[in-house]
Amino acid sequence: MSWGKSRGKATGRVRGDAVEKPKVVLGVSGGIAAYKACELLRRLTESGHDVRVVPTASALHFVGAATWSALSGHPVSTEVWSDVHEVPHVRIGQSADLVVVAPATADLLAKAAHGLADDLLTNTLLTARCPVIFAPAMHTEMWEHPATQENVATLRRRGAVVIEPAVGRLTGVDTGKGRLPEPEGIFEVCRRVLARGATVPDLAGRRVVVTAGGTREPLDPVRYLGNRSSGKQGYALARTAAGRGARVTLIEANTQLADPAGVDVVHIGTAIQLREAVLKAAADADVVVMAAAVADFRPSEYATGKIKKKDGQEPAPISLVRNPDILAELSADRPRADQVVVGFAAETDDVLANGREKLRRKGCDLLVVNEVGERRTFGAEENEAVVLAADGGETPVPYGPKEALADTVWDLVLQRLG
């Protein structure tokens, strides 16, 4: 059964009066997480993609060929000797709009990095001229081994998207980094890559840091000074950067949102903790995007016990001290001259005037300015903003999904990266 001989745009090919579905190769290597790929396959097929599953021989020990064939509607083989007249080891990769390998074991990553081709999946990886995504899954020690890290670095240099594994329960009683991200998250990365249509994701090989959420400054063990930031814009920035090939560190403050797939997540609470985490992560980053709402002040004293209400007495005034200005510090003392720094400004009045003044004071390259309020922006799925540039440029972003604003920010960042 042929799967096509020509590759078109990921949005579908027109053939006569019919539009062909985007073609996706789902590679599955031999890890216990192979069962999760069934859910990824379901999401891809139900969203209108034509998916061909190419497992390794060891993957079939976990999920059988009959399952993959029934779910995808295509025959399944692990070797190049099936249907030889159709040259599957060449044709499958040539006609694909996307190849995603989930799970990708340490062995599969090593073969891909070194160009080995001893089965149908590794041959497909060599012939593919479309975006390639690897979703690694293995024990922590295997992921952290220098050989695996070098193989991952090699694949990223070539333009492949290697999403970071999740932290959690592994096989047996082990816990750590190496867990396959949830299928929903992997699907979102696939969707983003297909939507952009580029053969090589434009942020491939870049390291970016994104902050999200709102810091909380403790007053006593049960109370804090905080803000209304949901973190959704920062998470959109992290997701879109990962989908465009970047290695992303997301530093989140009190968001209650699920960790996005393929992203290293650092959880913090206060502005002081945020500063420490950002300065550490920014040391080798190409881009830092400060989307978190950082408290300008914190209580000068922390009450170790709950502050009690006393009958007939007014509460004592709360004395505040300034928190460090992390954005200004980053902009003034960059670890590398070509690092791009992006800030956010939430304003309630004189939005552009205040934004331009903040851009001047902070010294960042780009400043995303938006109007906020109790029922505006905070917690919403949409946003509207103007991106101000240090060189005087202004880019309005109309009201729409926060991912659209995120993509605009990354487009502007790319113009400034060397």
TrEMBL record:
GO cellular component, one term: phosphopantothenoylcysteine decarboxylase complex
The Flavoprotein domain, residue ranges: 23-190
Pfam family, one: DFP
Keyword field contains Ligase: yes
Catalyzed chemical reaction(s): (R)-4'-phosphopantothenate + L-cysteine + CTP = N-[(R)-4-phosphopantothenoyl]-L-cysteine + CMP + diphosphate + H(+); N-[(R)-4-phosphopantothenoyl]-L-cysteine + H(+) = (R)-4'-phosphopantetheine + CO2
Assigned EC number: 4.1.1.36, 6.3.2.5
Keyword presence, Acyltransferase: no
Cofactor note: Binds 1 FMN per subunit.
Annotated region (Phosphopantothenate--cysteine ligase), positions in chain: 208-418
Phosphopantothenoylcysteine decarboxylase, as annotated region: 1-207
Gene3D superfamilies tied to this protein: CoaB-like, Flavin prenyltransferase-like
Any one biological process term the GO annotation gives: coenzyme A biosynthetic process
Cofactor(s) listed in the protein's UniProt record: Mg(2+); FMN
Metabolic or biological pathway, per its Swiss-Prot or TrEMBL entry: Cofactor biosynthesis; coenzyme A biosynthesis; CoA from (R)-pantothenate: step 2/5; Cofactor biosynthesis; coenzyme A biosynthesis; CoA from (R)-pantothenate: step 3/5
Stretches assigned to the DNA/pantothenate metabolism flavoprotein C-terminal domain: 203-415
Family: In the C-terminal section; belongs to the PPC synthetase family. In the N-terminal section; belongs to the HFCD (homo-oligomeric flavin containing Cys decarboxylase) superfamily.
PANTHER family: HOMO-OLIGOMERIC FLAVIN CONTAINING CYS DECARBOXYLASE FAMILY, PHOSPHOPANTOTHENOYLCYSTEINE DECARBOXYLASE
Function noted in UniProt: Catalyzes two steps in the biosynthesis of coenzyme A. In the first step cysteine is conjugated to 4'-phosphopantothenate to form 4-phosphopantothenoylcysteine, in the latter compound is decarboxylated to form 4'-phosphopantotheine. Catalyzes two sequential steps in the biosynthesis of coenzyme A. In the first step cysteine is conjugated to 4'-phosphopantothenate to form 4-phosphopantothenoylcysteine. In the second step the latter compound is decarboxylated to form 4'-phosphopantotheine.
UniProt protein name: Coenzyme A biosynthesis bifunctional protein CoaBC
Organism: Streptomyces jumonjinensis
Lineage: Bacteria, Bacillati, Actinomycetota, Actinomycetes, Kitasatosporales
Gene expressing this chain: coaBC
